[in-house]
Specification:
Glutaredoxin, Glutathione S-transferase Yfyf (Class Pi), Chain A, domain 2, 4-stranded mixed beta sheet, about 60% helix, about 10% strand
Amino acid sequence: MLTLYSYPALFGVADNNGYGLKVYAFLKLAGVPFNHEHIFDASTAPRGQLPYIVDSGETIGDSETIIAHVTRKYRLTTDAALSVAQRDGDLLVTRLLDDLYWVMSYSRWKDDRYYPSFRDALKREHPRLTNDALDKARAFNFQRYHFQGIGRYTPDGAYARGLADLGILARLVPETGFVHGMRPATIDASIYAFIANIHYYPIETPLKACVESHTNLVRHCEEIHAAVSG
C-alpha cells in the first residue's frame, strides 16, 4: 500500500504544512488507500523536503509530482473533464498557493507577535519537541525566508502579499460547490490544504482574519475538511 510521509497534525488538521495536506486531501478525495506516517525530520526525504510517498518500493517527492504519479498509476479521473483553459488556470492558482505558503510560514516562525503561540501549540500537541529543536528550526527558517525573499519584507509588506493571494482565491471559490462544478477537483484539494492551515489556526494573524471574512472560503474549506477527515 502507498505510504505518505508528511509533517505532523496540528489544530485538528492532518498536516500543518499545506503541501503535505494537499496530497493527503487529494488521496482521500480520490479514494486511494494509503498509510500516513507523520515525521519531523525531512533530511532523508527527496531533496530534503516533505511530503513524499513510497509506492511499491518507489520513493517520490514533491506534491505535484506525487499527484501526477498517483493519477497516472491508479488511472484517476479526478480532472479528466477539465478543459485546457481550466488546467492552465489551475496551474496559475497552484503557483499562487506557492506564494501564499511563504507568507503563512512567515506568520508562524518569523513574526514575533505570533511565534510564541505557535511554538507553545507545537509543544503542547507534540511534547517530544524541545525548545532547542524549535529554536534551530526557527533559525533555519529565517535563512530560508532571507534567500527566498519574504524575510526581507516588513510584516506589513509580507502580509500584503498573502492578503492579495487570498483575495484572488475568494473571487475564485464559488458560494456553493467547488471550483469546477459540484465535485471537487485537484485544485480544490490544493486550496483546502492552505486555507485549512489558516482557518483552523487559532492564532489571530492577518491571514486568518481575511479568511474568516470570506464565507465562501470558510464553507469550501469546511466541506472538504469534513470529506477528508477521519
